[in-house]
Every structure is written in structure tokens, then in C-alpha cells.
Amino acid sequence: MADSNVTSLFRSTAAHSPSMAALARESDGTGPVDFCIPCNPYFPTPAMFDDMAARLREIITYYPSSADTITAELCNLLQLPPSCVAMGNGSTELITWIDHLMVRESLAIPVPTFGRWTDQPMETGKRVDMFPLQESSGFALDLTQYAEFIRKRNTKVAVICNPNNPDGGYLHKQALVQFMDAMADLDLIVIDESFLEFADAEVEPSVVQEAMLRPNVVVLRSLGKNFGLHGIRFGYLVANPALAGRIRSMLPKWNLNAFAEHVVFILKEHGAEYAQSLQQVRRDRLDMASHLSALPGLTVYPSQGNFLFVRLPVGAEGTVVRDRMLTEHRILVRECGNKIGSSSRFLRLVVRPQTDVRRLVSGMEQVLYGTRRGAAVPELGTGTNYSSGTAAVDRLVGATNGAGMQNLAAQALATGTSGVGMPMQAPMQMPVPVPAAAQMPMQPQPVPMQMPQQPQPQPQMPQPQMQPMVAAAQVQQMPMAAMVDQSNGMGMPMQAPQQMPQQPYGVPAAAPAAPPMPQGPTPTGVPARNGLTAAQVRGATSPNGMQNLAPAPATGWPNAQSWPNAAGMGQAG
């Protein structure tokens, strides 16, 4: 697989990775080891695939049954009333109709998250209020702060993904019920439980039963992710009969294909295998987290999904890591630079069997450290012609990095908005105009060499929490990006805040004596001098910047517990 072809494939996909079919066409016809697409590697069983293969001609030759027939069979399996369920051709179809029918003017969503929750309403002209999850708190969602954010913005619809994608953050059922009680006057609350069946934090984690009783709650569930069948495209939502009926009335009569029908009708025969597959994924998640956390400088965040969110060592550029893992080791990983609220320092890695994980770890050791651990992968070269982000601000930063354009932050502030429909903090209220969504918390004094800090949780949450796992070993070398993390984006040590002159908004200040600037172009992935990275600009989404949002406690690593299968097909042992 040629490097140029790989680059072209990723550059042509705006907010997602290229399909496995596209990658296979650029190789010898076989795809790479997939740590990108979050599906269940243990289900369907080989026997189920053999059955589908034997009936392939019949399945693809004839029309499927109507969506009502397939939905009725699924409801019989899940023990849900059909009047409360709508099945879609993947969860994306349901998200589309939720937006068209139930989102009037605005929608709130924590970021980073699944891209369609931000992109779909923006495509139809809605205001999307993005609530930034804090790296310093392990990307945990504080529901109290989220509720205050919604009230300040007067947002009409609230979305919560549980577990969240890409970080796997989890919210307990009782906390979600309290949130729904507090937000009962909103037009709509959507709880996206697409990855919930991989969670083991509680015995009964779903709020499906609550959704059927409430007038403004919709729960979204995925079948492709749970069953390892993304290509079939099927998912469903649960709500009270009036809401579910509105969605059903807009769906085509044959919106579900014959493969979806076949799988739904054979699931009742394979409940035990499905439950075992979920248990194995949970065991593999712990094993994979343990192996990855042993890599120097790599941070692994607690997850309840079938994936792990990791921060690369200081100086590592995610697009370089992604491309080298694919071209040199035939391993596909999900670089998260094109997710709003994230950056190219983060990867999402899907949980896979231990044999594949050992291959992943071996490849990452070679890419990140060469023949030894300790030296991080270099930044992208200045000749690279694609960006790790997709928003307009990413293109702006990418276009100005090479020239080292001055005062990019001031230009962003001069517009009076953060690019997501929300006002930016005035400079007089911020000693340094860098939002808290920067890649790493900055220290007031320069630190020559420092490992990523473990976030300190606040005492608001009652349950015990675990911090992200960071390898104890020190990274031996710190390239340019490390200095940027401890600087103001100009490659110079950060000064104490009280030494920064504060100026009223809109009044130009006398230019101080400019310190000596580094010569040469700024590498891609490093903010332009006196500028902000794309992730920093996109992260400033609260009405008063980020200063009024205290870090939320990190989600703890759960104890493994058995819980009834949410699909009603036996018990997880």
C-alpha cells in the first residue's frame, strides 16, 4: 500500500476514517488488522456466518419483509412494546430524522463525541452548543455543569452519549435519571446508548424503561456495533409511543434490508454466544488497557465502551502514527484530530483479542520509539499537505503555520465568537487567551522535562474514581511539541499570569518588545506563533470561555460485574 494512496484516502474523508473496502482496494485485496471500527470481534459466530453464506443467494435475491415485521420480531426478542420502538437503517438514519422532526433551533452535545451529533444539526441550520469535556478530568461529563450550560444557552435539545465515543466515559443510570428530571422542560433529551452493552459498571445500566414513560426522552441503540455487523446497517430507538410513532411514520416501508431481517430472526437461537462475546470483550478491554499503559508516555483513559481512548507521548503526531502503523505494520487505528474537542494527539483503539493487541503494541513501540523506548515519533514535516482537523479553523491554522502568522489568537477573538455560535471570553477576563481545551494543562513556570500529569478529580461526585493510567517510565527526549505544551505557543517559556498586562476588550495595547522568535516554518500540528491550535479554538465554547467551568471528576475504572443482557437473550456470566 503506497504512502501517497494512504494519505489520499484519509484526506478525502472529512469526519470519519475511510471504509475497510476502500483500504482493501488500495492493497492486495485484504484489509489491515482493524483497531478503528468499533465492532464486536466475537459475534456473529463462525456457524452464523456459515448459515448466512449458505443462504446468500436467497437473502439478496428477494425483497425483505416490511420494517413493521422485522421490528415486531426484534421487540419480541427485547421484550419491548412495538409501539415504543422504531428501527432504522443504522443509527445515522434515526439521528437524521430526530434532527428533522424534533430539533427546532438548538442542540447541546458534549464534545468530543460521535460526529453526526454535531454535523447533522449544523447541516440543517440548527445552532449546536458544544460543551467541552476536559482532558484534565479524564474527559468525564459533569452533569451539573452540563445542565447549567444548557440553561445559560437556553438550548432546546440535549444529547448524552453513554458510553461516550471516543473516550468511553460512563454515567450511572441514577445520575441520568436525575438529569432527565431536571431537564423535563426541554423539547427533547436523547440518550445514545449505542455502546452500552459493552459496559459492566452496573447490573441494569440502560434508561430504556424511563424513556417509554417520559414525554421528551429518546434512547438510541445500535445493533451493528453490538453484533459486529456494521455493514448490515440496523439500529433502533425507544421512546414513548407518540415520539416513536412520529419517527416511524417518516421511515420508508422497506428501510431495512434482507440481511438485517435474517440476523434479527436468528438471534433468538444464539443468545448464549452473544452474552459470552460481550463478556470476552470486557475481559479483553482490561488486558488491552494494561498492555498499552506500559508504553512510556502513553495515557490510557478509563472506558466502558469496546474501545480505549489514548493520548500519545509528547511530540507524537497522530496522523504520522496512523499512517506508519498502516503502511509499515498493516494496522488501522483511529486518529482523532478531526473530532471536534479532540486533537491529533489522541487515538481511539478498538478492543480486540490478545493476539492482535500484542501486534498493536509491538507496532506502536517501533513507530513511537524506534528500536528502543523513550524517543517519541517526530512531528509532521512542513511539506505535509493535509490537516488533522476538518473545521474551517483547522484549515486556517494549517495555512498559516508555515509562515508563522502573528496574532492569530487576537484575530479569532476579534470576531467575538468561537465558531460554534457562542461568544468568546473578553481578553480582560483571561490572562492568557488560550482555552482550557488545550492538549495539556500549562504550568505557570517552565518545566524542562515533565510527564503528562494525572488529572486530580474534584470531590463533587460521590463514587470513587480512577485516574487515567500513565506509564511510569520517563520519555527520554522531548521534541518541539513538548516545549509548546509548556509555552504560550511561541516556543518560549510561559510567564506568570500576573505579569501579563490586561487590556479592555477592543482597545489595542502598546506592543511590548518582541522576544527573539524561532526561525523557520512552524511544523504542522504546532500552533502558529502567537496563535491557537484548532483544538484550542474549537474548545472555547462556554459563554465565558472556560474559566467558569471547574474540572469534573474522572470516571472511575469499574469493577467487573455480571449484568443481564440488555437484549433479553440470557445472562452475561
From TrEMBL:
SUPFAM superfamilies: PLP-dependent transferases. It is an enzyme of class 2 (transferase). Its EC number is 2.6.1.9. Keywords: Aminotransferase, Pyridoxal phosphate, Transferase. Residues 496-524, 539-573 are annotated as: Disordered. Its cofactor is pyridoxal 5'-phosphate. Residues 73-361 form the Aminotransferase class I/classII large domain. It comes from the Bacteria. InterPro entries: Aminotransferase_I/II_large, PyrdxlP-dep_Trfase, PyrdxlP-dep_Trfase_major, PyrdxlP-dep_Trfase_small. Pfam families: Aminotran_1_2. This is Histidinol-phosphate transaminase. It comes from Streptomyces prunicolor. The lineage of its organism: Bacteria, Bacillati, Actinomycetota, Actinomycetes, Kitasatosporales.
